[in-house]
UniProtKB/TrEMBL annotation:
This is Uncharacterized protein. It comes from the Archaea.
Length: 45
C-alpha cells in the first residue's frame, strides 16, 4: 500500500471523520471521493 504523508491538521480532520471506524478505510474513502470530484475520468475504464 502506498504511503501518504499529511499535515497534523489534516490528520486530525481524518481522525475526526473516522469517528471510531478504521482510520485507513476512512482515509481511502476520502481520497477516492477527492479523486472522483477532481478527476472523474480517472475512474472510467
Amino acid at each position: 500500500m502506498p504511503r501518504i504523508e499529511v499535515s497534523e491538521n489534516l490528520y486530525r480532520q481524518i481522525e475526526s471523520e473516522a469517528n471510531n471506524d478504521d482510520f485507513n478505510d476512512t482515509l481511502w474513502k476520502m481520497v477516492g471521493s477527492y479523486r472522483r470530484t477532481n478527476n472523474p475520468e480517472a475512474d472510467q475504464t
